[in-house]
């Protein structure tokens, strides 16, 4: 009888576990975003508990130059997390023993390629953009060691990669975490996750972003008008229903997003949404070791992470107000600052995809964001951004969120080509 997709993942995860056990030294290379840092945390805890000698390296992207710098022929086992499937040819050239734990569309749709073992949900019919994250893929390996508590970090990765509420394999992981009593889930208003005065939580909230509340003064005034104490740190159900009912007419879609499935963890940062935002903030600011430390529940890392988060939220709000969106036929775009373009693009993506970019040296780096409605109409930003190769760069990601790099002199030409391709995608479905 043929195995199901889940059974195939479990079978390969067991083989990967056996391979890890065989090696004396393991080098982990993971991505710097929330999902990558969650993956790094899962692998760190797994390898530590398995009494392995290892090191972890966090990177912004896995270019050929990065691979040349970090990967060399030795007796180590390399594990690539949240990356690798799209760079497998460059890894193959290094002739090293490697494991790839990724959820991006793979260049080679096989489990075993020379000395590489690739665990990628796309190989089994699962969509890595919405049904499982890289941290979820790492968790399937961790659970073969019996470390079911690491499902918590997989859930943090889901939230960071906009895959929550869960479906597909994500739902399997969440259900397993609930059954083993590692998490508690209930509906709540997003402002309650931060543990600060409600007017501050409201003013700096960008998921969702509500223009009428985008300063402390505006938020305080709004709450006082509703006879809600702005300085309280937790809203009752009656109070948050009152807030939503006053916003629903002007911001119907945004007001609906205020109610979330809140996840409480057995972690020093109790709220999964808060932990996800904290990892995102430190990752974007290059505090990679702090991100892993937060995942590992180090008190000083959590203290630093909380400060970085609030500094980041204030800077992000300022950036959103500063950004000037320009339009082509099918996209909107802007030039922004490093560490902010992706999240700003995601916040501003409404009726059209939004693409942000910044210049670093001789290279322009892009983040493209859509939304569920645009994806349902045929948008696939992964395919679109992969045309960066035609401009001497690299690109790829997911249908709803993707990135690229091209030489800085190619920015205008690249954006025009992206606009053209997105137009073709959206017209094809209409």
Automatic annotation (TrEMBL):
<dbReference type="InterPro" id="IPR001667">
    <property type="entry name" value="DDH_dom"/>
</dbReference>
<dbReference type="GO" id="GO:0004527">
    <property type="term" value="F:exonuclease activity"/>
</dbReference>
<dbReference type="Pfam" id="PF02272">
    <property type="entry name" value="DHHA1"/>
</dbReference>
<dbReference type="InterPro" id="IPR051673">
    <property type="entry name" value="SSDNA_exonuclease_RecJ"/>
</dbReference>
<dbReference type="InterPro" id="IPR038763">
    <property type="entry name" value="DHH_sf"/>
</dbReference>
<feature type="domain" description="DDH">
    <location>
        <begin position="26"/>
        <end position="118"/>
    </location>
</feature>
<protein>
    <submittedName>
        <fullName>Phosphoesterase RecJ domain protein</fullName>
    </submittedName>
</protein>
<dbReference type="InterPro" id="IPR003156">
    <property type="entry name" value="DHHA1_dom"/>
</dbReference>
<dbReference type="Pfam" id="PF01368">
    <property type="entry name" value="DHH"/>
</dbReference>
<dbReference type="GO" id="GO:0003676">
    <property type="term" value="F:nucleic acid binding"/>
</dbReference>
<feature type="domain" description="DHHA1">
    <location>
        <begin position="337"/>
        <end position="423"/>
    </location>
</feature>
């Amino acid at each position: 009888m043929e195995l199901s997709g889940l059974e195939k993942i479990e079978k390969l995860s067991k083989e990967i576990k056996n391979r890890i056990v065989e090696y004396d030294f393991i080098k982990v290379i993971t991505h710097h975003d929330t999902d990558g840092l969650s993956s790094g945390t899962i692998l760190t805890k797994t390898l530590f508990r398995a009494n392995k000698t290892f090191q972890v390296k966090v990177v912004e992207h896995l270019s050929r130059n990065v691979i040349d710098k970090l990967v060399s022929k030795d007796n180590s086992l390399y594990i690539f997390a949240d990356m690798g499937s799209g760079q497998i040819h460059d890894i193959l050239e290094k002739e090293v023993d490697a494991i790839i734990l990724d959820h991006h569309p793979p260049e080679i749709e096989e489990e075993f390629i020379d000395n590489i073992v690739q665990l990628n949900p796309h190989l089994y019919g699962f969509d890595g953009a919405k049904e499982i994250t890289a941290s979820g893929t790492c968790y399937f390996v961790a659970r073969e060691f019996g470390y079911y508590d690491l499902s918590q970090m997989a859930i943090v990765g889901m939230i960071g990669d906009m895959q929550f509420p869960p479906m597909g394999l994500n739902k399997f992981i969440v259900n397993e975490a609930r059954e083993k009593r590692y998490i508690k889930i209930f509906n709540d208003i997003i402002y309650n996750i931060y543990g600060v005065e409600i007017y501050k939580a409201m003013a700096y909230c960008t998921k969702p972003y509500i223009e009428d509340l985008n300063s402390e003064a505006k938020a305080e005034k709004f709450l006082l008008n509703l006879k809600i104490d702005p300085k309280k740190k937790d809203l009752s159900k009656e109070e948050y229903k009152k807030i939503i009912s006053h916003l629903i007419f002007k911001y119907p879609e945004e007001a609906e997003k205020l109610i979330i499935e809140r996840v409480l963890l057995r972690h020093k940062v109790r709220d999964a949404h808060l932990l996800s935002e904290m990892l995102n903030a430190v990752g974007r600011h290059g505090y990679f070791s702090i991100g892993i430390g937060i995942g590992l529940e180090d008190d000083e890392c959590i203290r630093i992470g909380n400060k970085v988060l609030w500094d980041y939220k204030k800077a992000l709000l300022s950036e959103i107000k500063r950004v000037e969106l320009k339009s082509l036929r099918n996209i909107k775009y802007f030039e922004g600052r490093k560490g902010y373009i992706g999240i700003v693009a995601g916040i501003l993506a409404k009726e059209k995809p939004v693409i942000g970019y910044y210049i670093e040296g001789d290279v322009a780096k892009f983040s493209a964001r859509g939304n569920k409605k645009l994806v349902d109409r045929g948008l696939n930003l992964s395919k679109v951004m992969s045309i960066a190769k035609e401009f001497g760069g690299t690109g790829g990601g997911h249908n709803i969120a993707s990135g690229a790099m091209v030489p800085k002199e190619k920015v205008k030409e690249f954006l025009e080509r992206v606009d053209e391709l997105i137009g073709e995608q959206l017209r094809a479905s209409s």
